[in-house]
Amino acid sequence: MTNSSIIPLLLVEDNRMDIELTLDAFREARFPNPIQVATGGQMALDYLFGHGVYADRQRYPLPGLILLDLKMPVVDGYEVLRQLKGTPILKRIPIVIMTSSSLEGDRILSYDIGANSYLVKPLTFEGFMDVVKTIGGYWLNLNLNAPDESENG
What we know:
Layout lengths: L8 E4 L3 H13 L6 E4 L2 H9 L15 E4 L8 H9 L9 E5 L4 H10 L3 E4 L4 H18 L11
Parallel strand pairs: 1-2, 1-3, 3-4, 4-5
Helix pairs in contact: 1-5, 2-3
């Protein structure tokens, strides 16, 4: 069994069209990974910290990979990134920024806060397919995630 069959993903994205494109691309690429969607930064934090309905870790397991948009209202991706990388039990989860911004300042700040990768969202479905295949090939199959804080403090 490969790594990809066991790693749940969390997609943090507020744009409905980008959510659908990403989910369609993962389906088309036939990755079996379960994908949870948080439609904003606060929802992502609630999910990751197990607040409210997300306290049930059987139903809402911690992801092995987070795909994070930066530009969201109220709680943006930078704040989500800051909180996750500042929390011992969550800091080792790989975070791939998927944003429409190609600004150098956004990339620098993302990496400074702790992003593991930075991808600019493609404009076409074919582009999304290429990105998803790359994410799947590397992050879900080849990459060996660090043990979580509870396994090896």
